[in-house]
Amino acid sequence: MKTRHKARELALQTLYAMDFNHTLTLESMPYIFSGITDEEYSMLEDDVKLYGMYLVRGTLENLEKIDESIRKFSLNRPLERIDIVDRNILRMSVFCLMFGDIHPHIIIDEAVKLSQDFSTEVNYKFINGILDAMQKQLFPIQEQHTNDSFKN
């Protein structure tokens, strides 16, 4: 799982840089992750490269739908006012919730870890709240089964 965490970090850094530079399009997607050299890229495991670029590409391909979902659940903070790091943690995580095959609780845990590592100390609560509300609506039956299993 350390491989996937590293891939998420690199994908986040790339999405952050693209958002900061107002270049969040597939046409502007870099061939390597932002913030690393060609040499550093060549030293990454293939799984890190593949999964990281999958996250960047998938987020960019579905950006309009992802941003629409974030706006729907972020009632008190418009998308444009969400800190750039947190906005891209949310985008990548929402992509995984909507289109991935990873359990929602893992996605949320990873988003919280990324927020704690790259954002301000309290923003992880905001991210956790948005993603938790979203996954409850997207996966209501799964949430019920999870709650039932805790009772036993």
Short structural description:
The chain has 152 residues and is mainly α. Helices cover 73% and strands 0% of the residues.
Overview of this protein structure:
The protein has 152 residues and is an all-alpha fold. It is 73% helix and 0% strand. It has one domain (2-139): NusB-like (N-utilizing Substance Protein B Homolog, Chain A). The protein starts with a helix and ends with a helix.
Do you know the CATH topology? N-utilizing Substance Protein B Homolog, Chain A
| Overall helicity | over 70%
Largest sheet: none
* CATH architect. name: Orthogonal Bundle
Give a quick set of tags describing it:
N-utilizing Substance Protein B Homolog, Chain A; 152 residues
Write the layout of secondary structure elements.
Elements: H1 2-20, H2 38-43, H3 46-61, H4 63-73, H5 84-99, H6 104-118, H7 123-138, H8 140-151
